[in-house]
């Protein structure tokens, strides 16, 4: 069957359908939606991408990055006292110190301290007239400077090893290095301040203990002095030895008088004046021995105020023990205080830099191709979403 016969057959089947030529079948006319897609893609993707590329290569100022890296180290020395042992426990948390330092670098206090050394606003707003997107406004508020600081200063922290790495971007190589060096110096000062707080607490505690021990020692010595003045004794042991010597002497005299009385009893009668005198001496010596023994064991003391040597010795030993305990406590407290002062003069924490602040030679930022690629990607995604929304609404009509 020829082509003309087949066309005639189709015409007979559908008389209302106009005949289509071969050239018309090979040519497809673009519809309105195709034009809409092309125009919208050019407006929403191509044009913004061209504007972004022009700005990145023509207006965006070069940024130089300076790097530094450090970790917190400390000197650990064994301490003989509990006070400094507690100080060592405070110094043991290097990871927590790194956490504090990580947050401190982004804090307003760090910005203020670095800004006191360098004019951050002038450094960061150097190219604001040419590059208002990546530069800081000269009249920006403190909050604007804080937000811009967090854009330009990037801090990475590895919790396991405690390593902190800092990257600072600036529009001049020397500015980047100066800011990085200032951050390192202020971080070191902050670590020293944190250590000084622990040291001050240790010294204050040791000083309080020393003052308490000194007051206790003075009270013990004063009580012993009052006791000696009241009893008129320096050492009860010495008085007891004298008292025992006196009793021994009286015992010896008593024995001699008894022997003498026995001899007189054999030679004369009881009315002999010598025998009577001997008996009186014996009675007096026995009475004296009884009085002296009563002083040692009970009854009246040397002054007759109702206390004996046993009570005096007991009280004296108690006061002596209190004084010795106070002296030992004072010696220990004084040693603790001296050791705390010695530790306070040492720098137990410091920053160990494994990378000193670098001076950049070439600009690394802004990363123009990366920014442009991300811009095109997000514009394409946004355009695709709008197209899908458009067709979804069109199909529901």
Automatic annotation (TrEMBL):
Q: Where are the transmembrane segments?
A: 35-57, 369-393
The GO molecular function terms of this record are:
protein tyrosine kinase activity
Q: Where is this region: Disordered?
A: 1-26
Bias type Basic and acidic residues, positions: 1-16
Keywords, A to Z? Answer: Coiled coil, Membrane, Transmembrane, Transmembrane helix
Q: Which residues form a coiled coil?
A: 203-267
Recorded GO cellular component terms are:
plasma membrane
PANTHER family given for it?
Answer: FERRIC ENTEROBACTIN TRANSPORT PROTEIN FEPE (PTHR32309:SF13), TYROSINE-PROTEIN KINASE (PTHR32309)
Question: What protein name applies here?
Answer: Capsular polysaccharide transport system permease protein
Q: Where does this protein come from, organism-wise?
A: Roseovarius litoreus
Lineage of producing organism:
Bacteria, Pseudomonadati, Pseudomonadota, Alphaproteobacteria, Rhodobacterales
């Amino acid at each position: 069957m020829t082509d003309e016969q087949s066309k005639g057959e189709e015409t007979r089947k559908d008389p209302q359908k106009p005949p289509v030529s071969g050239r018309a079948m090979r040519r497809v006319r673009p519809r309105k939606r195709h034009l809409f897609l092309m125009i919208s893609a050019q407006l929403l993707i191509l044009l913004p991408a061209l504007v972004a590329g022009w700005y990145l290569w023509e207006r965006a100022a070069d940024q130089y990055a300076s790097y530094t890296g450090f970790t917190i180290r400390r000197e650990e020395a064994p301490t003989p006292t509990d006070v400094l042992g507690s100080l060592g426990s405070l110094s043991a948390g290097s990871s927590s110190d790194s956490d504090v330092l990580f947050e401190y670098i982004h804090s307003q206090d760090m910005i203020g301290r670095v800004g006191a050394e360098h004019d951050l606003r002038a450094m960061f707003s150097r190219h604001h007239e040419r590059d208002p997107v990546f530069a800081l406004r000269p009249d920006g508020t403190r909050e604007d400077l804080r937000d811009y600081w967090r854009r330009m200063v990037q801090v990475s922290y590895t919790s396991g090893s405690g390593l902190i790495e800092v990257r600072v971007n600036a529009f001049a190589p020397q500015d980047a290095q100066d800011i990085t060096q200032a951050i390192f110096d202020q971080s070191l000062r902050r670590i020293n301040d944190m250590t000084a707080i622990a040291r001050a607490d240790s010294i204050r505690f040791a000083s309080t203990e020393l003052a308490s021990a000194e007051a206790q020692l003075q009270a013990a010595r004063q009580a012993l002095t009052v006791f000696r003045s009241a009893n008129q004794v320096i050492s009860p042991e010495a008085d007891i030895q004298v008292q025992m010597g006196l009793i021994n002497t009286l015992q010896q005299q008593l024995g001699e008088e008894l022997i003498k009385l026995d001899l007189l009893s054999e030679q004369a009668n009881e009315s002999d004046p010598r025998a009577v005198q001997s008996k009186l001496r014996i009675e007096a010596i026995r009475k004296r021995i009884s009085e002296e023994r009563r002083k040692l064991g009970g009854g009246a003391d040397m002054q007759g105020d109702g206390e004996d040597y046993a009570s005096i010795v007991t009280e004296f030993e108690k006061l002596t023990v209190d004084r010795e305990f106070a002296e030992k406590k004072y010696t220990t407290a004084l040693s603790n205080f001296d050791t705390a002062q010695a530790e306070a003069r040492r720098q137990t924490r410091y920053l160990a830099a494994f990378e000193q602040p670098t001076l950049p030679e070439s600009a690394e930022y802004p990363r123009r191709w990366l920014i442009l690629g991300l811009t095109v990607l997000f514009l394409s995604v946004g355009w695709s979403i709008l197209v899908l929304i458009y067709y979804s609404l069109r199909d529901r009509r």
